[in-house]
Amino acid sequence: LLRNILPRLCMITRLKMEELIHDVHRPLDIDKIKKGWHTIPQEYDYWIPEEDIEGSVPADLNGTLLRNGPGLHEVYGKKLIHVIDGDGMIVALTFSQGRVHLRCKFVASRHRLEEQKQRKFLYRGQMGTHPSGALKDTMTFLSSAVNLQWPKHIYRNPSNTNVFYWGGKVLSCYETGLPYCLDPHTLNTLGPENLGGQLKLKTLAAHFRLDMKNNRLVCISVKPGSGKIQPSLEIYEFDSSWKLIRHQMHHIKGLNYAHDFLLLEDYYVFHMTPFVDTSLRSVLAIYLGWSSPGQQMRYYSHLPSRFIVIPRHKGAKFQNIMELDTDPFHVSGNVDRILSLKKRSFCLTRFFTSLHQNRSMIPSHSVLSAWGQNSTWTLTVKYGYQMLQSHLVRFGVLN
Question: Average of pLDDT values for 48-66?
Fold first, then answer.
């Protein structure tokens, strides 16, 4: 559905970006980048009037573009600490014979429905929004410790990070929980999707890759480890009817987070970030209510930064996983890959934190050294890695 429309939209976006890219040191417009914090008061379903369209829509541009992102910054009077704690809103822009139709709906997650029923904020966010506060969490922790148990924290699944269509399903994803399945035509939420019980870790990462040559969707699930519990990485390859063609499960020490990955013909490439610490100290801060998983995301000098290269075609128990040390950074997103083991990534420097200043959409935007770098890497399996290019950017460019 998107194959015909995306190249056209990407070309339009690229032309707009190229007008601005020569002046990367221009002042930031804080008011504009704050718009990501705006609450969408209602859902919409209408044909966009011609007078609201600049220029004209090509008559041969037909298809639907799906987008997902947080649509709320306040829940029944509770202002969110971080935009990523907001409920996901799915937007469908349908182009048909020169006209454009807009439909947007919130993902009706279990947490959203329960909060609507009780008309109050109930479930904590991964990025720090808290329904009760640290004192209550501390008391709960001490009570559980008497019984030699860990308290159970229930985090909201806002399903707000990505949305995609495959095999007749529209899935809305948030990496720490199950995806939600939506009706492709109405965007009504059908419920959580476990793909017939195939998502053993009960999560599905927001980013995916397409193997167009073999017509496969490649997805991952990640569970962090702590103490004696090893982290888990699950890799799936589905055909167009959601049949599981290839599956791998790994427990790689230190790989506690994987926001994105690269798919090559013979390898999966991940990055082991030094920005996620699962030590006892960090875990205790979260359980005591003093911090949250997202607020803990920052550079830890004692943690490794590595590329993890996993052979794609060998069984999980019989392959040689390669770990290549690199300079410390955090991959925000992989742009693409070039040739066999050459990649471009949008990387966050060691000065990055997940805190947003003045409710902007750019973390730590007042710290120049915290901005991301658009980097090109060449991975050499025998000898480690080499960084070919790395330059400061304020925004990504669609290629």
Answer: 92
